[in-house]
Here is the input.
Amino acid sequence: MAAVECESKDDSPTDLPKTPVFSDETVKTIEEHETSGIPLQSSWTFWLDKAIPGTTVEEYKENLTKIYTVNTVQSFWAVFNNIPSASAVQVRYSYHLMRDERYPLWEEPINQNGGTWRLKCQKSDTEIIWKEMVLAAIGEQFVECVAEGDEVCGVTVSIREKEDLVQIWNTNAVLAPKATVLNKIRTLLPTTNFYEFYKPHQSNHAYGRH
Here is the structure.
């Protein structure tokens, strides 16, 4: 059970630790919310990673830091509000919020036939887009936006040199053209500008890294 320690949501970007930790008080609060909060329809797991070019699938998995798996609305907020905001995260790092405890890894059997809707956004908009997308995911707001047999299973925010990238994961790339996920996103973010497109996992040049 690892997590990211943060003195303030307004901290300047810092190099996040390999195995960050919550304070004992924060962990106690999260655990209390896990037993008494409003249940989510499924659990969701926060992950952290740093992009390192040329890594294999196994190396990537080893470099992932699991932050916390949440099962209630209140524990989600207790974790979300106690990790550095997206605007405070250093370049090349990514946060992931994945359904259940699945890895944010294209090659995982449960993920390999899926893909992501990708939103390239200005840094001034990254934080609000990330927040709105994870809230939509845990609130199951995308359920009616995907075809039968498909599912939204994760959200990622990746901090880059210029534009940042927010991704919404689904499980079946073949069914993506039938989805209205992008329409839903535009209704959730009516005043925010971003460039969007869809990409199947298996079309990524690094898919199947060895």
Notes: Helices lie at 24-36, 57-63, 73-80, 123-138, 181-188. The first helix runs from residue 24 to 36.
